[in-house]
């Protein structure tokens, strides 16, 4: 088992084992506690992940030894902080197959998506000049997203359409939550200016056909925005190879702290996109009447930056790299299949999305007949099992499945088969406990 600080470990597609996972779990302080008299079983990593000690130590070390504002000042601490900050950017860039100037720090993926949307809105009112012309939207133009999106990849495009007069369209999903690619082919055309979609559904675990969607969009001259929140933490991600124009993901879902996110953009696009947040540190020259802006990524990083969080994100990536992202992906695929098989065998439990035998990410959401999702979550919590309940910020997708809420179990590199079996066993007892079992 490689030590999590060894970033030179060769890639290996062999799944993790339960024994290895139990060793990894020792690195996570939050997983060493009991909840309601039971050892904690954390199956809510799709919402936010737990943090290993090495990540916590990296952030603490910065504050104890190098705390200073970055890109400002000439003293030693400022130089050290700036070096750590930019080294973290380089680490993220390598992790996702990007160049350093293509990585913009944000507070989270939601901010990154809004940054793109508001940048396009600014271009549409004439900001950015000729270089920003490809971002301009007018009446008759179309933005295409999907029925399966997280609200963060839907609401900003609704607002952009409202501000510019563009039309927002949605690729539907089938009964298993897979995109209707026949509809995508019909929908994406010469009027399409932007196609935004998730890589992996946070509700169904469906892995969308990125390459095919990118080809459809680019054939018509449209830009592509990829929501990688549920893929970057769990699978090898090469954004340059995928040929997407923009992508976003959040650190807190991949072992890092809250308050740090990443926007990826092709360098020539970032340099042309008008900024969203303005102020100090993103300018060249300022007069009382006008300002000039730096190239990307600094043009999008106004104000005091998220220095300790960026450094901690780099430490999280070092940890994931040492364990082996390929191995993590293979392990989670195994756990996801086990979840679906176990849930599908339970009377009165309906799995949302693809059924047994269909490749998916390591999560599954279910509707329990006769029991509200919040009651299911409370019942499992009494057993020390943490899951997500509600609509998971994806109301349209739940509406498509005819439910208002579901219960989601999402696994990560610190979950064992015993964890999965425990949530299946707990789910099997829910309907009897609430007196609705037939």
UniProtKB/TrEMBL annotation:
One Pfam family of this chain: Aminotran_5
Catalytic activity: (sulfur carrier)-H + L-cysteine = (sulfur carrier)-SH + L-alanine
Family according to the record: Belongs to the class-V pyridoxal-phosphate-dependent aminotransferase family. Csd subfamily.
Coiled-coil parts of chain: none
Official protein name in the record: Cysteine desulfurase
Keyword Heme appears in the UniProt entry: no
Keyword Transferase: yes
Domain of life: Bacteria
GO molecular function: cysteine desulfurase activity; pyridoxal phosphate binding
